[in-house]
Specification:
Distance between the termini: 51 Å
Number of strands: 2
Largest sheet: 2 strands, antiparallel
Structural class: mainly alpha
Shape: extended
Length: 172
């Protein structure tokens, strides 16, 4: 019989394999990744692996405590959920990471602030975020005017409510 620690290890392994499969799919696909596709892919990959574990149990005689399978699934989905929640930050063209990259590339000679300002223009700081809002259908660009969509308004209300609960000021 497989012990509990091994089952938890399997749950982590399933999560990481799902993430690796998602990365491979993203690399092979020319399509622009979306959050919805990310959620579907990772959920599908995770569930497929659990179906595989149950099939192993049924057909190969592999000893598996089926009572712990739901716990393993919850652990796996929690890990995958954390990855999904952090994915927009990973995917974004972060000015902080760009600054760190520029400084690292400069080596021992260093870099001036004026050079950083030249490299980090409006396109880097704002245009990518606007493109993300439009792609995620949170805003529309109608004749050069940005308008919030119904979905965007709902998301904004959630963030405003959250910041109010935390007693934070409005904004980022």
């Amino acid at each position: 019989m497989i012990d509990d620690l091994t089952l938890i290890f399997l749950a982590f392994s399933v999560s990481f394999l799902s993430i690796i499969l998602h990365i491979l799919i993203w690399r092979m696909c020319a399509a622009t990744p979306s959050n919805r596709t990310l959620i579907y892919l990772l959920t599908l990959f995770t569930l497929m692996q659990y179906v595989f574990l149950v099939l192993l149990y049924i057909f190969s005689g592999w000893e598996l405590n089926l009572k712990l399978l739901p716990i393993m699934l919850v652990v796996s989905m929690a890990i995958v959920g954390c990855y999904i929640a952090s994915y927009p930050a990973i995917q974004a063209n972060s000015p902080t990471f760009q600054i760190a990259k520029l400084i690292a590339e400069s080596g021992n000679k260093g870099i001036t602030q004026s050079y950083l300002y030249e490299q980090l223009n409006t396109s880097t700081l704002v245009a990518d975020r606007i493109r993300d809002l439009i792609k995620d259908k949170l805003a529309d660009n109608i004749s050069g005017t940005m308008l919030i969509t119904r979905r965007g308004r709902k998301v904004a209300r959630i963030f405003i409510l959250w910041r109010t609960l935390l007693k934070e000021s409005k904004g980022g």
